[in-house]
Design a protein that fits this description.
globular; Arc Repressor Mutant, subunit A; 150 residues; two-stranded antiparallel sheet
Length: 150
């Protein structure tokens, strides 16, 4: 039984991740950006006070090199601004970045609606709350595992 739950859970999560990446790629392709840019723009938009690269790494569980490359591209395309000479600089969206973030948010809302089409509002809330709880529990489990290695 646990085996079946593991397979169902992991395969479903992998499929979700892959289709989300494909949707992001499709939606952002006309801007010559990639899925990681969508995620960075979204979180910068949700945090108008700005975020450091380190905070973005921690928020989206991405490595520093990938975030640095993404932010450099966003700055070159004038969607984000920061002083690239300093360390721990706060990254903000430009006006063009905010416009793109609003477009991204519209597309996210459509994708979420499509993904939970047959759910009632209560079922949708329960699902996302449960998924968040599972994620948080697994993060804690991983942290506990890695602490025991030290």
């Amino acid at each position: 039984m646990v085996d079946d739950l593991y397979i169902n859970f992991t395969i479903s999560i992998i499929k979700l991740n892959k289709i989300i990446q494909k949707i992001k790629s499709f939606e952002i392709s006309k801007y010559d950006l990639q899925p990681i840019h969508v995620t960075c723009i979204y979180y910068l938009w949700k945090n108008p006070q700005g975020l450091t690269a380190k905070e973005l790494c921690a928020t989206i569980l991405e490595d520093k090199a990938a975030i640095s490359r993404a932010l450099k591209t966003l700055q070159e395309k004038k969607y984000a601004k920061y002083d690239s000479k300093g360390r721990n600089e706060i990254v903000h969206l430009t006006n063009e970045g905010v416009k793109l973030a609003e477009y991204i948010n519209e597309r996210i809302n459509l994708a979420v609606k499509a993904g939970s089409l047959n759910f009632s509002d209560d079922e949708r809330k329960f699902f996302y709350d449960s998924l968040s709880e599972i994620s948080n529990n697994l993060i804690k489990y991983y942290q506990d595992l890695t602490k025991s290695e030290v």
